[in-house]
Write a structure and sequence with these properties.
By secondary structure, the chain is of the alpha+beta class. It contains eight helices and 18 strands.
C-alpha cells in the first residue's frame, strides 16, 4: 500500500490516524522494524521523523504482516476443554502467552483462536486483539476463557472485574508448612525499579502504586517431606498480576521453578523450565469448568 500524505505529519501520528487499533508500542515497532518506508526511494524512517505529500509512506510490509497475524497459528499444544455460546474454554500449556502485546507476538492464544475461529476477525479489528477476559502468566498452565465476539468478551470481563469468578489453582511449593490452611490478604503493588516484579505489602516495604487488594486461601494437599516440597491448592476471586506467586512467596513458600519470586532459585536442586502453577477450575454462579490435573499431581 502506497499512501500520499497531503499534510506534514510525524510518522507515528500518521500511523495512529491510519491504523487507530495499533498501540503506541506497536506503531513504534512498525517504524523501527522497517514495516513502513518513505517513498519514492524506500527511505528507512525514524519514530519522530516528519513526512509530507512529497514523501508519503509505503505500508505494504505492514499490511502483509497484519494479514499474516489474522490468519492465526494452529498451535496443536492447546486443547479445547469445552465450548459455549460466544466463548471457548481451553487448557493453556506453559510457555504460551494468553494475549499478544508486541506486533510480533505470534505464539499466543489470540493467534490460536484466530486460526480455529476465523469469524473472530469480524468482531476484533485490531491486529493484536485481547480475546481473553482474564489472563494466565506465560509459565502458568490451565483453564482459560477465550471470547469469540465482543459481547462475550465484555460480559466475561465484567464478571472477572467484579470478582464474581472463583478461581482454583494447584502449585508445587518449597517448604514445610506448620499448618494446613492459610489465608493471605496482603495487598499487592509494583516493586520499585523492576517493571516485571510485584510485591506483597507485608511490613515496611517500598513499592510503586497503585495498591491492589488481593485475597488468597491456601490449603496443603500433599507433603513430600524428603524433597522439602508440598502441593498446595489456592482459591481466590481477586486477580492481581502474579497474585498466587507473590502471596505464596510472602508466606515463605515460593513455587518450584519460579525464577522471579524464589530468592533461592539458583541454589535449588530441582530445576524447571516454568514455575509449577496450574489453574485448575473456574466457577461463577451455576457455571463451572475444570481441566485435568492427573499429570500435574504426579510431577514431583
Amino acid at each position: 500500500m502506497w499512501v500520499n500524505c497531503m499534510t506534514t505529519l510525524r510518522v507515528s501520528k500518521w500511523l495512529k490516524e491510519k491504523y487507530p487499533s495499533l498501540t503506541q508500542r506497536q506503531r513504534v515497532e512498525a517504524i523501527e522494524s522497517g514495516l513502513v518506508f518513505g517513498f519514492p526511494n524506500n527511505k528507512f524512517l525514524k519514530k519522530g521523523e516528519k513526512i509530507s505529500g512529497e514523501t508519503g509512506l509505503n505500508c505494504e510490509k505492514l499490511e502483509t504482516h497484519i494479514s499474516k497475524l489474522k490468519q492465526g497459528n494452529p498451535n496443536e499444544n492447546i486443547q479445547i476443554v469445552s465450548e459455549h455460546e460466544g466463548i471457548v474454554v481451553i487448557d493453556k500449556p506453559s510457555g504460551i502467552a494468553s494475549q499478544p502485546i508486541s506486533l510480533f507476538d505470534e505464539n499466543t492464544v489470540t493467534q490460536w483462536a484466530r486460526f480455529h475461529y476465523p469469524s473472530i476477525n469480524e468482531y476484533f479489528p485490531e491486529p493484536q486483539p485481547t480475546l481473553t477476559p482474564h489472563r494466565l502468566d506465560i509459565g502458568t498452565s490451565g483453564v482459560l476463557v477465550v471470547a469469540l465476539n465482543q459481547d462475550s468478551y465484555l460480559y466475561w470481563r465484567e464478571k472477572f472485574l467484579k470478582k464474581l469468578v472463583r478461581k482454583t489453582y494447584l502449585a508445587w511449593c518449597w517448604g514445610k508448612p506448620k499448618d494446613n490452611n492459610y489465608c493471605v490478604d496482603y495487598s499487592i503493588a509494583h516493586a520499585p525499579g523492576d517493571a516485571a516484579r510485584m510485591i506483597a505489602l507485608k511490613g515496611n516495604v517500598r513499592y510503586r502504586p497503585p495498591v491492589l487488594k488481593a485475597l488468597s486461601n491456601m490449603r496443603v494437599v500433599r507433603r513430600v517431606e524428603e524433597k522439602n516440597v508440598f502441593l498446595a491448592e489456592i482459591n481466590c476471586s481477586t486477580g492481581v498480576t502474579h497474585q498466587v506467586r507473590v502471596h505464596l512467596t510472602s508466606l515463605g513458600f515460593p513455587i518450584l521453578g519460579d525464577r522471579l519470586y524464589d530468592p533461592l532459585y539458583e541454589m535449588r536442586n530441582l530445576k524447571r523450565e516454568f514455575h509449577a502453577l496450574r489453574a485448575v477450575s473456574l466457577a461463577v454462579e451455576d457455571w463451572y469448568t475444570a481441566v485435568d490435573t492427573e499429570d500435574f499431581l504426579e510431577e514431583n
